[in-house]
Every structure is written in structure tokens, then in C-alpha cells.
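Q: What does the assembled structure look like for these inputs?
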Amino acid sequence: MVKEVMKKAEMEKIITALSKEVLKEMGRKNLAIVGIRKRGAILAQRIAQRIARTTKKEIPLGALDITLYRDDFSSIGPQPVVHRTEIPFDLTGKNVLLVDDVLYTGRTIRAALDELIDFGRPEVIKLLILIDRGNRELPIQPDFIGKRLVSRANEMVEVKLKESDGMEEVIIIKRK
Amino acid sequence: MMEWKKKDLLTLEELSKEEIEFILETANSFKEVSTRDVKKVPTLRGKTIVNLFFEPSTRTRTSFELAAKRLSADVLDFSIGNSSVSKGESPVDTARNIEAMKVDCFIIRHPVAGIPKLIAKEVKAAVINAGDNSHEHPTQGLLDLFTIREKKGKIKGLKIAIVGDILHSRVARSNIWGLTKLGASVILCGPPTLIPLGIKHMGVEVTFSLEEAIKKADILYFLRMQKERQDEIFFPSTQEYVQLYGMDMENLKRGKRGLLIMHPGPINRGIEIKSEIADSPASLILEQVTNGIAVRMAVLYLLVGKRGKND
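A:
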């Protein structure tokens, strides 16, 4: 069963509002944005563009692939496909905005934090999430939230973006 | 996207085109790790990888060791010089004994073709063939494919000439399998005594003239003259070999535009290729070495990463 919870117009509005909030809270000085592949990286790019449009200054942008830092390697099964991590600037001293599409158990963010810190020592790291669906397994909370959803373990929350999926929407899929 | 299913990497002969491409794609992601300040990711933390070398090797062993260490695995070095092999133990028994200490992967080089495969059947740990006589050296073939693809943007449709001692070369065999599977055409070039009879059955062209190879090729791949394997006489003198098959600047000018030079190392300067070639912008030799780490990281990740408990 599929339920739509957000449409294109609302997503755009939320992303614009989040960008403004980030600029207001974090300032543009030393700001850098890093997205988690793959949809977090797309969202990071959009937010960086919106902030750059306001400040007329390019924001350093990076993308993390957290596959190599996952904590579920020892569970049996095929290992995930590895993609490239690209951090084309020095993280040390930066105010880093970490971006992902959905926050659930918190394990992806734990891996992303470990990986980020191997690249340098940021002054501060803040977390931006488009959809927070609750059910955390680790003590990790976002600083900027697009929307909160109540979800169950047998449901999947999917964010679709035109760069990766050819369309814009957020849906909940219920597994039997 | 496919998933990796094989326990071992023994030959390129047994891999499909898709499997080879999957390894190259994975290696592409790993290349970035070696450019970081902290050249290490925690992926294979707690895994033990054994270099089991029954034949001396420095660069392949070092490359595997660095690849494993950059994935946070522990590496144990078991070489013939400090082993009980000289006490009469069979290679399979040696491997089983080490496996009893709970290790996850063997990287094996042996002077007899087929030994890595024999061991692979007898142990549960993953086995990577790091060279078995003149049979195969799959990770060398993979890193060469990776380098060609990176430089030329593709492999399909290219002409690659492999020049030198084909007869004794595991590197040549792995490359022939890999290149032909990915749609390149291969020309073998060397003195008739060093080109095995019947090798045309592998779907390659043969020429005894370096001139002809240079004219046709997009890439010239020179093999090392393996002096340690020349217990018989395959050509009259080194000078004659250099005259007929040695590569210099004059030769390079007669090739296609953008002709590239490769060599698996270690190079004998002045024999297969002159210094002016080895150090020229056309040479990919050091990039091959760099790419070797990324390719071996990818192979270790695919073979060792998925294996849960050592049971």
C-alpha cells in the first residue's frame, strides 16, 4: 500500500524555508554543506544553490558515501555497492551542515559522523533532515527538520527527487 | 546493480564481463580513499588477511598489504623464507593450518599453476590468486583494465598490443582474458620462440614485427624480460632482442596519436623500453601502480566484506 505524504510544491517550499533557516542559524562564514549519497547529496546541492543565490557567494559542497563506515557488515548478505566520497575542501574549522533525506534509526548518521571526522576537525556539525520518521536506535537528533512523520517498522518512507527518480514526492509504502 | 557471489578470485578466465565491470566500478569508488589525509576506512576491521607467498614478490605483496591496511584489516605475512614449507608440508596443509587460526582471506602466489585453486577448494576463507607460474595474475589484469578504461574512457574497440615474453607471462594471459571479454582486440608481439603455439585460439592476433604492432595499436603493453625464467635460450642475445623489440622514442613517433605505454613492472630500463619511454608522458607505468591499490581494495571488499562469521 502506497500513501503520498508530500507533493512537489510542498517539498520546494520546505527546502527553501530550511535554506533560510540554515543561513540564519549558521551564518555564511565558514559554512560548508555535505550530503549523504544519494538523495541527501542532491538535497545538499539544492540548499547550497539557494544559499549561494542569497549570499552571492559559493558554498563549499561535498558528498559522502557511508558504505565503508556501516556497522552492519557482519550480518549475512550481499555487501552494498560502494560509491565515491567527494570532499573537495578542508573540513577543519568549518561549520558543516550534514544533509540527508530521511532520518530513522540514526545509524547512517553515526557512520557519516565517523567518516566526516576522518577528513578533519570541523568547528561544528549540524544535521538537516527532510523527513524525520522517528524510531531512533541511537542518541542522534536533527537540528533542522523539514517534516515529522509517525511511521511503523513495517513501513518504508521514500523521498523521490527528480535528479535521481525523475519525479518529486514523498511516499509511505506499507509492507505486508 | 549486481551483487558479488564468488568466494574466490582465481582467474579472469572464469569471470563474466559483468563481474569484471563490477570490480572496476567498485575500484573507481575506492580510488578516492588513498587521496585522503587519513588513508583508512573501517570497513574490514577485525578481518585477518594472510599473504601466503611461496615465491618471492615485493610489489604485489606490498600492494595487497597496503590495500588491506587501508580497509583496516589485519595482515599476516607468511613467506617461504620464514616458513615450514621447506620442512616438507604441502601447500594445502600449510593453508589449513593457518586457517585453523581463524583467518578470512588468503592471497596466494605459488610457482606451480593451479595451486591457488587447489587451496581454494580446501579452505572456507576467500582465496585470491596473486600469480601462479605462467597461468594467471588476475588482479594485475584488473588494474591494467582499470587504467586503460580510466585513460581512454572505454575498452571496447581498442587495440592493445602485448609485446615480449608471452610464453612465460601470467600477466599476458590475464590481460588477454580481460581485454577480449570487454571487447578490445589483442595483438601479441614477440620473437616466435616466446609466443606459444596455439595461443591464437584465445582470439588474438599474432605478429613477430614490433613495427606492425606499433602501427596498429592504441596501447603498447610491454612485458618484463624474465631473466630468471630463461633457463633455456629463446633468443640469440639481449642486444638482438633490444634491437628487434625494444621501445624507444623513434618507435613511439611512428605510432598512432595518443599511443600509450604500459608495463607491469619491474622495468628493465634499456631492454623492453628505454628510459625516455618509461619517463615520457605516454607512459602509464606509475598510474598502474597507483590503481593497483584501488583495484585490490575493491577485490578485498567484495570477497571479504560480505563474509559474516568465520563458520
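Residues 307-311 of chain B have pLDDT under 50 and may be disordered.
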